[in-house]
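Title: Prediction job returns without error message
Component: structure pipeline
Severity: low
Priority: P3
Assignee: unassigned

Description:
Job completed but the reporter wants confirmation the result is attached to the right record. Sequence as submitted:
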Amino acid sequence: MSPLLENEYTPTLFRVTIAQLLSGVESSDTMKSVVLLNGRPILQDVEVPVLSDGDVLIEMKRCGLCGTDLEKIGGHYTASQPILGHEPAGVVAESRSEIVNKGERVFAHHHVPCYKCYYCTHGSPTMCSDYRRTNIYPGGFSEFFRVPAFNVNGGGILTVPPSVSYAQATFIEPLATVLRAQRRASLKEGESVYIVGAGPMGQLHMMAAKSSGAGLVIMSDLAPARLDFALKMGADSAIQAGPGSETEVVRLTGGRGADLSIVATGSPKAVASALRSTRRGGRVLLFGVPFKGSIMEYDLSDLLNNELSIIPSNAAVEEDTKEALRFITSGRIDVSPLVSKEYSLDQFEEAVRDSMNGNVIKALIVGRE
């Protein structure tokens, strides 16, 4: 059972009409938008955002429902603004930018760094103070959303070629985070990889590792259906998470343990399990975001004695989104099978429930048709 389900949170979707949601909006045109209000996802009729110089308005066609969205709904994610929907693709409805044209099919990145500060110039662009300050408004689960000029000018909008569907384009951001993470972990050809968590991000990690020439790729999860799906998608082995999983990983890797273990879930128990499943001198990539205040029980002497490297990776920047788009466009990674079901904005509550219950691999929200 996932941590979100353990707290017995049941999402409730309300419809209300608010005359003015966004400051500075004076338009009389309204649209549907799912936003967080008092910790709850609310479907509202809100005013279409008004653009300032350099801004772009995008009509959302598809937007992926991410685990981060679920954590925000559950009140567990506080690393960024409480804005829902950051995997959107759509068409430019209006542009006040000289570099983006009306009618273009696009992906929009919600966070963009400044590329000038100490963090940006020293290899840590996702730590830039501007990175999480920027966002799309009022969020990706809206019929229209505004991309601020800062994001536009920083390369946050990518043109999507006709060969790539809007559904496929929603994977640009999540795949970008995976590619950046595996680059930070220095994944090498032929290495054994153990992925803890077979949700959509775990599946992307498996596909990316395979495309980069990884050797044996093992996945674990609590849900048998996700393990079956992982095998169909190309995993070499899929094991039930829990007691005995670490022993099985060691057995499958010739008694050593994995060269690289990837934790694609926020569970502290999963992190500890990954550490115990990694060979001496190996690496553990922390990818899933633990709930704030999480504590892990692990003997730190083992960390030093086994010379394990722990490598966290958080989010992605524009070089990564461009690479992800190239992977999708070329077919190097086929993301289409990951989409389990599409939902309208009115069905957002159902999409959240299905995702939290593990009934789908990836849910997409559909905008206006």
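Comment from assignee: result matches the submitted record. The two ends are 36 Å apart (CA to CA).
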